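Practice record 12: protein with PXL.
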Amino acid sequence: MINMSSALTHNSDKQTDIPAASLSDRLRADSHKVKKAAIINDLSGFGKCSLTASIAVLSVMGVQPCPIPTAVLTNQTGYKNHYCIDLTDEMNRFTEMWSLNDESFDGIYSGYIADKRQVEIISDFINRFRSDSTAVIVDPVMGDDGRIYSAYSTETCREVCRLAASADIITPNLTELCILTDNDFSELNSQCGDDNFLEKIYETAKGAISHIEQKIVVTGIKKGGYLYNGVFSKQDCSFVKAQCHGGSFSGTGDIFASILCASTLRGVPIEKAVENAADFISLAVEDTIKEPYDRNDGINFEKFLYMLHESV
Ligand code: PXL
Protein backbone atom coordinates (compact mmCIF):
# COMPACT_ATOMS: atom_id res chain seq x y z
CA MET A 1 0.00 0.00 0.00
CA ILE A 2 1.23 3.47 -0.78
CA ASN A 3 0.95 6.31 1.63
CA MET A 4 2.22 9.32 -0.25
CA SER A 5 3.89 12.08 1.71
CA SER A 6 2.86 15.59 0.79
CA ALA A 7 6.44 16.18 -0.33
CA LEU A 8 5.76 14.06 -3.41
CA THR A 9 4.37 16.70 -5.69
CA HIS A 10 5.49 17.52 -9.18
CA ASN A 11 5.81 21.21 -8.55
CA SER A 12 9.26 22.63 -8.53
CA ASP A 13 10.90 25.94 -9.07
CA LYS A 14 13.45 24.21 -11.29
CA GLN A 15 11.66 23.02 -14.42
CA THR A 16 12.68 22.67 -18.01
CA ASP A 17 11.50 25.19 -20.60
CA ILE A 18 8.19 24.23 -22.19
CA PRO A 19 7.34 25.49 -25.69
CA ALA A 20 4.03 27.38 -25.94
CA ALA A 21 2.57 25.91 -29.15
CA SER A 22 0.68 22.60 -29.12
CA LEU A 23 2.56 19.37 -29.69
CA SER A 24 0.69 18.45 -32.86
CA ASP A 25 1.50 21.89 -34.31
CA ARG A 26 5.11 21.36 -33.47
CA LEU A 27 5.55 17.91 -34.93
CA ARG A 28 6.60 18.18 -38.54
CA ALA A 29 4.94 15.57 -40.75
CA ASP A 30 6.61 16.84 -43.90
CA SER A 31 9.91 14.98 -43.81
CA HIS A 32 10.53 11.59 -45.41
CA LYS A 33 13.51 11.15 -43.10
CA VAL A 34 13.37 8.48 -40.41
CA LYS A 35 12.48 10.28 -37.16
CA LYS A 36 14.91 10.01 -34.26
CA ALA A 37 14.12 9.54 -30.59
CA ALA A 38 16.54 9.64 -27.69
CA ILE A 39 15.51 6.82 -25.37
CA ILE A 40 16.69 7.23 -21.78
CA ASN A 41 16.16 3.93 -20.02
CA ASP A 42 17.95 0.91 -18.58
CA LEU A 43 19.14 -2.23 -20.35
CA SER A 44 17.96 -5.34 -18.53
CA GLY A 45 19.00 -8.85 -19.59
CA PHE A 46 15.68 -10.37 -18.56
CA GLY A 47 12.23 -8.89 -18.17
CA LYS A 48 11.54 -7.69 -21.72
CA CYS A 49 11.36 -4.14 -20.44
CA SER A 50 13.01 -0.74 -20.87
CA LEU A 51 15.48 -0.50 -23.79
CA THR A 52 14.91 -4.11 -24.86
CA ALA A 53 11.27 -3.28 -25.52
CA SER A 54 11.79 0.27 -26.79
CA ILE A 55 14.47 -0.51 -29.35
CA ALA A 56 12.34 -3.26 -30.90
CA VAL A 57 9.10 -1.25 -30.89
CA LEU A 58 10.51 2.01 -32.21
CA SER A 59 12.49 0.29 -34.94
CA VAL A 60 9.57 -1.74 -36.24
CA MET A 61 7.46 1.43 -36.22
CA GLY A 62 10.00 3.23 -38.40
CA VAL A 63 11.59 5.45 -35.74
CA GLN A 64 15.33 5.39 -34.96
CA PRO A 65 15.95 4.72 -31.26
CA CYS A 66 19.05 6.49 -29.87
CA PRO A 67 19.61 4.88 -26.46
CA ILE A 68 21.06 6.54 -23.38
CA PRO A 69 21.38 3.68 -20.90
CA THR A 70 20.67 4.75 -17.33
CA ALA A 71 21.94 1.40 -16.02
CA VAL A 72 22.77 -2.10 -17.16
CA LEU A 73 21.08 -4.82 -15.14
CA THR A 74 21.33 -8.59 -15.18
CA ASN A 75 17.52 -8.53 -15.09
CA GLN A 76 14.78 -6.18 -13.96
CA THR A 77 14.44 -5.69 -10.22
CA GLY A 78 11.30 -7.81 -9.72
CA TYR A 79 13.24 -11.10 -9.86
CA LYS A 80 14.57 -12.53 -6.60
CA ASN A 81 18.15 -11.47 -7.47
CA HIS A 82 19.57 -8.70 -9.64
CA TYR A 83 22.82 -6.82 -10.15
CA CYS A 84 22.76 -3.23 -11.38
CA ILE A 85 25.62 -1.32 -13.03
CA ASP A 86 24.61 2.29 -12.45
CA LEU A 87 25.58 4.60 -15.32
CA THR A 88 24.66 7.93 -13.73
CA ASP A 89 28.23 9.20 -13.98
CA GLU A 90 28.43 8.36 -17.71
CA MET A 91 25.15 9.90 -18.86
CA ASN A 92 26.45 13.45 -19.29
CA ARG A 93 28.88 12.11 -21.90
CA PHE A 94 25.93 11.49 -24.19
CA THR A 95 24.74 15.09 -23.84
CA GLU A 96 28.29 16.29 -24.37
CA MET A 97 29.20 14.15 -27.40
CA TRP A 98 25.82 14.48 -29.07
CA SER A 99 26.06 18.25 -28.66
CA LEU A 100 29.53 18.28 -30.21
CA ASN A 101 28.20 16.14 -33.07
CA ASP A 102 25.24 18.53 -33.57
CA GLU A 103 22.66 15.80 -33.13
CA SER A 104 18.96 16.62 -32.90
CA PHE A 105 15.89 14.63 -31.97
CA ASP A 106 12.23 14.50 -32.96
CA GLY A 107 11.46 12.81 -29.67
CA ILE A 108 12.92 12.36 -26.20
CA TYR A 109 11.50 9.55 -24.12
CA SER A 110 12.61 8.69 -20.59
CA GLY A 111 11.69 5.73 -18.36
CA TYR A 112 13.43 3.89 -15.53
CA ILE A 113 15.61 6.01 -13.23
CA ALA A 114 18.42 4.11 -11.53
CA ASP A 115 19.49 6.98 -9.26
CA LYS A 116 17.77 10.22 -8.23
CA ARG A 117 20.69 12.25 -9.64
CA GLN A 118 19.74 11.06 -13.11
CA VAL A 119 16.73 13.40 -13.18
CA GLU A 120 18.94 16.48 -13.22
CA ILE A 121 20.98 14.97 -16.07
CA ILE A 122 17.83 14.11 -18.04
CA SER A 123 16.41 17.61 -17.44
CA ASP A 124 19.64 19.11 -18.76
CA PHE A 125 19.48 16.80 -21.77
CA ILE A 126 15.89 17.89 -22.48
CA ASN A 127 16.80 21.55 -22.14
CA ARG A 128 19.74 21.08 -24.47
CA PHE A 129 17.94 19.12 -27.21
CA ARG A 130 14.30 20.19 -27.02
CA SER A 131 13.22 22.25 -30.00
CA ASP A 132 9.80 23.46 -31.12
CA SER A 133 9.30 20.20 -32.97
CA THR A 134 10.49 17.78 -30.28
CA ALA A 135 7.98 15.59 -28.45
CA VAL A 136 9.04 14.94 -24.86
CA ILE A 137 7.51 11.82 -23.36
CA VAL A 138 8.18 10.95 -19.75
CA ASP A 139 7.04 7.61 -18.42
CA PRO A 140 7.15 8.34 -14.68
CA VAL A 141 8.24 4.79 -13.80
CA MET A 142 7.93 4.43 -10.02
CA GLY A 143 5.79 1.41 -9.19
CA ASP A 144 2.86 -0.84 -9.98
CA ASP A 145 -0.06 -2.51 -8.22
CA GLY A 146 0.06 0.00 -5.38
CA ARG A 147 3.71 -0.62 -4.59
CA ILE A 148 6.79 1.51 -5.26
CA TYR A 149 9.60 -0.41 -7.01
CA SER A 150 12.22 -1.75 -4.58
CA ALA A 151 15.05 0.37 -6.03
CA TYR A 152 13.08 3.65 -5.73
CA SER A 153 13.32 5.89 -2.69
CA THR A 154 10.92 8.69 -1.72
CA GLU A 155 13.51 11.19 -3.01
CA THR A 156 13.75 9.38 -6.35
CA CYS A 157 9.95 9.53 -6.67
CA ARG A 158 10.00 13.25 -5.89
CA GLU A 159 12.58 13.79 -8.62
CA VAL A 160 10.58 11.70 -11.13
CA CYS A 161 7.51 13.85 -10.38
CA ARG A 162 9.60 16.92 -11.13
CA LEU A 163 10.74 15.45 -14.44
CA ALA A 164 7.18 14.55 -15.39
CA ALA A 165 6.14 18.20 -15.06
CA SER A 166 8.31 19.17 -18.02
CA ALA A 167 6.93 16.60 -20.50
CA ASP A 168 4.47 16.97 -23.37
CA ILE A 169 3.02 13.54 -22.62
CA ILE A 170 3.26 11.43 -19.47
CA THR A 171 2.17 7.80 -19.14
CA PRO A 172 1.64 6.90 -15.47
CA ASN A 173 -0.15 3.73 -14.39
CA LEU A 174 -2.69 4.16 -11.59
CA THR A 175 -0.05 3.65 -8.89
CA GLU A 176 2.16 6.32 -10.44
CA LEU A 177 -0.79 8.68 -10.90
CA CYS A 178 -1.40 8.42 -7.15
CA ILE A 179 2.24 9.25 -6.42
CA LEU A 180 2.16 12.20 -8.85
CA THR A 181 -0.97 13.61 -7.23
CA ASP A 182 -0.25 12.66 -3.62
CA ASN A 183 -3.28 10.34 -3.41
CA ASP A 184 -3.65 7.04 -1.65
CA PHE A 185 -3.72 4.16 -4.17
CA SER A 186 -5.78 1.76 -2.03
CA GLU A 187 -8.39 4.38 -1.33
CA LEU A 188 -8.72 5.38 -5.00
CA ASN A 189 -8.68 1.82 -6.29
CA SER A 190 -11.25 0.70 -3.72
CA GLN A 191 -13.77 2.84 -5.63
CA CYS A 192 -13.34 0.81 -8.85
CA GLY A 193 -16.86 -0.62 -8.50
CA ASP A 194 -18.45 2.85 -8.40
CA ASP A 195 -20.30 4.08 -11.51
CA ASN A 196 -18.30 7.30 -11.48
CA PHE A 197 -14.88 5.62 -11.01
CA LEU A 198 -13.58 6.72 -14.41
CA GLU A 199 -14.69 10.32 -13.81
CA LYS A 200 -12.91 10.14 -10.47
CA ILE A 201 -9.73 9.06 -12.28
CA TYR A 202 -10.05 12.03 -14.64
CA GLU A 203 -10.49 14.40 -11.70
CA THR A 204 -7.39 12.89 -10.11
CA ALA A 205 -5.40 13.05 -13.36
CA LYS A 206 -6.21 16.76 -13.75
CA GLY A 207 -4.16 17.30 -10.59
CA ALA A 208 -1.12 15.86 -12.36
CA ILE A 209 -1.35 18.10 -15.43
CA SER A 210 1.42 20.61 -15.03
CA HIS A 211 0.94 22.81 -18.09
CA ILE A 212 -1.87 23.58 -20.51
CA GLU A 213 -0.49 21.54 -23.41
CA GLN A 214 0.37 18.47 -21.39
CA LYS A 215 -1.42 15.19 -22.05
CA ILE A 216 -1.65 12.35 -19.57
CA VAL A 217 -2.29 8.78 -20.55
CA VAL A 218 -3.20 6.77 -17.46
CA THR A 219 -2.64 3.08 -18.14
CA GLY A 220 -4.04 -0.10 -16.64
CA ILE A 221 -7.24 1.13 -14.97
CA LYS A 222 -9.18 -2.02 -14.02
CA LYS A 223 -12.95 -1.80 -13.81
CA GLY A 224 -15.75 -4.35 -14.24
CA GLY A 225 -13.51 -7.01 -15.81
CA TYR A 226 -12.09 -4.56 -18.38
CA LEU A 227 -8.87 -2.61 -18.65
CA TYR A 228 -9.14 1.10 -19.47
CA ASN A 229 -6.53 3.61 -20.56
CA GLY A 230 -7.48 7.24 -20.02
CA VAL A 231 -6.31 10.04 -22.34
CA PHE A 232 -6.54 13.33 -20.49
CA SER A 233 -5.80 16.98 -21.06
CA LYS A 234 -7.00 20.02 -19.13
CA GLN A 235 -10.02 20.21 -21.44
CA ASP A 236 -10.64 16.68 -22.69
CA CYS A 237 -11.00 13.17 -21.46
CA SER A 238 -11.48 9.89 -23.28
CA PHE A 239 -11.09 6.23 -22.38
CA VAL A 240 -9.93 3.28 -24.45
CA LYS A 241 -11.46 -0.01 -23.27
CA ALA A 242 -9.58 -3.29 -23.72
CA GLN A 243 -9.80 -6.91 -22.62
CA CYS A 244 -8.35 -7.59 -19.17
CA HIS A 245 -6.33 -10.79 -18.86
CA GLY A 246 -5.54 -10.74 -15.16
CA GLY A 247 -2.34 -9.64 -13.46
CA SER A 248 0.36 -7.18 -14.39
CA PHE A 249 3.42 -8.17 -16.41
CA SER A 250 6.94 -6.82 -16.59
CA GLY A 251 7.56 -4.42 -19.44
CA THR A 252 4.00 -3.68 -20.51
CA GLY A 253 4.29 -0.05 -19.40
CA ASP A 254 7.51 0.30 -21.42
CA ILE A 255 5.96 -1.30 -24.51
CA PHE A 256 2.95 0.99 -24.13
CA ALA A 257 5.00 4.18 -23.81
CA SER A 258 7.26 3.10 -26.70
CA ILE A 259 4.27 2.62 -29.01
CA LEU A 260 2.93 6.00 -27.94
CA CYS A 261 6.32 7.62 -28.57
CA ALA A 262 6.74 6.13 -32.05
CA SER A 263 3.10 6.83 -32.98
CA THR A 264 3.40 10.46 -31.89
CA LEU A 265 6.50 10.93 -34.01
CA ARG A 266 4.77 9.24 -36.96
CA GLY A 267 1.78 11.60 -36.63
CA VAL A 268 -0.78 9.06 -35.35
CA PRO A 269 -3.48 10.78 -33.20
CA ILE A 270 -3.02 10.01 -29.52
CA GLU A 271 -6.36 8.18 -29.03
CA LYS A 272 -5.60 5.91 -31.99
CA ALA A 273 -2.07 5.30 -30.68
CA VAL A 274 -3.46 4.34 -27.27
CA GLU A 275 -5.98 1.98 -28.90
CA ASN A 276 -3.19 0.33 -30.94
CA ALA A 277 -0.97 -0.01 -27.88
CA ALA A 278 -3.78 -1.51 -25.79
CA ASP A 279 -4.72 -3.99 -28.56
CA PHE A 280 -1.11 -4.99 -29.09
CA ILE A 281 -0.44 -5.63 -25.40
CA SER A 282 -3.74 -7.45 -24.98
CA LEU A 283 -2.86 -9.83 -27.82
CA ALA A 284 0.62 -10.53 -26.44
CA VAL A 285 -0.70 -11.07 -22.90
CA GLU A 286 -3.40 -13.43 -24.19
CA ASP A 287 -0.70 -15.44 -25.92
CA THR A 288 1.58 -15.43 -22.85
CA ILE A 289 -1.01 -16.83 -20.46
CA LYS A 290 -1.76 -19.83 -22.68
CA GLU A 291 1.16 -21.54 -20.91
CA PRO A 292 2.53 -21.31 -17.35
CA TYR A 293 4.32 -17.98 -16.96
CA ASP A 294 6.25 -15.79 -14.54
CA ARG A 295 5.09 -12.16 -14.64
CA ASN A 296 8.73 -11.09 -14.30
CA ASP A 297 9.58 -12.58 -17.72
CA GLY A 298 7.27 -10.17 -19.54
CA ILE A 299 4.99 -10.95 -22.46
CA ASN A 300 5.34 -12.66 -25.86
CA PHE A 301 5.44 -9.34 -27.69
CA GLU A 302 8.07 -10.39 -30.26
CA LYS A 303 5.53 -12.58 -32.05
CA PHE A 304 3.30 -9.61 -32.77
CA LEU A 305 5.80 -6.85 -33.57
CA TYR A 306 5.01 -7.10 -37.28
CA MET A 307 1.54 -5.74 -36.51
CA LEU A 308 3.04 -2.49 -35.23
CA HIS A 309 4.81 -2.05 -38.52
CA GLU A 310 1.41 -1.98 -40.16
CA SER A 311 -0.04 0.47 -37.63
CA VAL A 312 1.94 3.48 -38.90
O1 PXL B 1 9.40 -1.86 -16.50
C1 PXL B 1 9.76 -1.10 -15.44
C2 PXL B 1 11.16 -1.42 -15.02
C3 PXL B 1 12.21 -1.00 -15.81
N1 PXL B 1 13.49 -1.27 -15.49
C4 PXL B 1 13.78 -1.97 -14.38
C5 PXL B 1 12.77 -2.41 -13.54
C6 PXL B 1 11.43 -2.13 -13.86
C7 PXL B 1 10.37 -2.60 -13.01
O2 PXL B 1 10.53 -3.34 -12.08
O3 PXL B 1 13.11 -3.10 -12.44
C8 PXL B 1 15.23 -2.27 -14.07
